[in-house]
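question for whoever is on the cluster today: can someone run the full assembly for these? two chains, 529 residues total. i dont have access anymore since they changed the login thing
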Amino acid sequence: MGPRAVARRRPAVIVWVIAGLALALLVLPVLGLLLSAPWPALPALLVAPETLQALGLSVLTGLVSTALCLVLGIPLAVVLARSVAWPVVPRRVLRAAVTTPLVLPPVVGGLALLLLLGRNGVLGRYLAAVGITIPFTTGAVVIAQTFVAMPFLVFAVEGALRGADRRVERAAASLGASPLRVFRTVTIPLVAPGIAAGAVLCFARALGEFGATITFAGSYPGVTRTLPIASYLASQTDLDQSIALALVLLVVSVAVLLGLRDRWLPGVRG
Amino acid sequence: MSASALVADFTARRGAFEVAVAFHVVAGRPLALVGPNGAGKTTVLNALAGHVGVESGSILLDGRHIEQVAPELRRVGVVFQDYLLFPHLTVAENVAYGIRMRGTRRAAARSAALPWLERFDLARLADRSPHELSGGQAQRVALARALAAEPEALLLDEPMAALDVEIRDDVRAELAEYLRDFSGPTVIVTHSAADVAALAADVVVLEHGAVTQRGSWASLRTAPATPYLSRLVRRPDEEGVEPATLRSPAPGTQHPARE
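^ ran it for u. tokens below:
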């Protein structure tokens, strides 16, 4: 009790030291990037056609993927939240299925998409028969990004659904709202912060997507060469160009996070 | 033509627990459903509202079978124990919600809600958010919201439980007046004798999922048939039925020990 008890709550010195190392690991690489940036040459590199092309493609595909994640992911989150009442086996299968893209190496995910939707793929051969080719198109970029980003949206919304008082939906039903109207007028507004947080995480993940995209969509300039791929390719030949592309990626990501931090991102709230 | 009535005779299930009740309520004679915690009162209320399925039996509202009707089509209004106001809507929008769900456009629903706001003394709170309301105000919003949807029957689940003890008498008296104006059958779930005395004409006592006694409050007071009910009538002030152990924690358990 007393001062001693208060003093004991302070973490041990070793905890501070390790926490400092962890922070260094997180922050120093970004500092290194900023320090090695070719600042004088940067303006020219930033407006280079390849940079702008990759940026435009990244932002476009990232936004479309996020929209797709919202449309598909919110209903999936509702089902996932409901599944707590299911028998244990289907409940766990569903949760594992949603988690798959999180634990699967992106390259494996890209390969799996290729084997499913490629010209000779399980589904792809039927699509090819009616003249639809998906791999190595901008559509393939969107599918790859949606694949890897979806769990972020689903888990964020599911968490919000679990935290919300769902009995309010009963109140809405007793006031004459059909299930669809309850969903639209009560459920969605109740979990809006979770939806927003999920969408931000989704966009950030889609923006950084590399492995699944290059495997499933390749790297055609203006079609599938997004910022991360362009930056990686440039690092093989022109490091300054690579750093410039990386900085653009960094700025867009940080801007997204900062733009929404106070309102919706619990993890980033100061 | 007879007064509108709610006639219930059904069993409902919550997990392994089964409740069986039979009663009828007519407009103008509110029915109190009393019983200790866990007796199944809320399950009965949820079954009447359609949020819990009926295992067997029937519920008739003005002669129409509603036991298989979806909650949104039952026209049974509910005032929930903690009111369950829509946190993302203003007071006015809460009250207008039921009007909107019946096909009225947003602006028209808002003006249709005005008389309800006036009647429940909520006009000056119209643009407030539910979290800015006192308990008594929130209860009035919940009641106005339920009644604005023009239900044919009204259910109230522990209407006083969420209120501070000091204001319960005043709010209860107010509620009794509002309920007198409602023209349909009313069921009030409570475990407070004071609620029964002020709000209800008839009583059904529910213990362990079964009806143990029924009648007017006056008749039950003079001849309580179960230990539960005799405790309830002996302590008509508040919460007469709560086990003493729940109300006053043993010394030393009241505050978590400090570190």
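summary bc i know u wont read the tokens: Residues 49-82 of chain A form the longest helix (34 residues). The CA atoms of residues 157 and 218 of chain A lie 31 Å apart.
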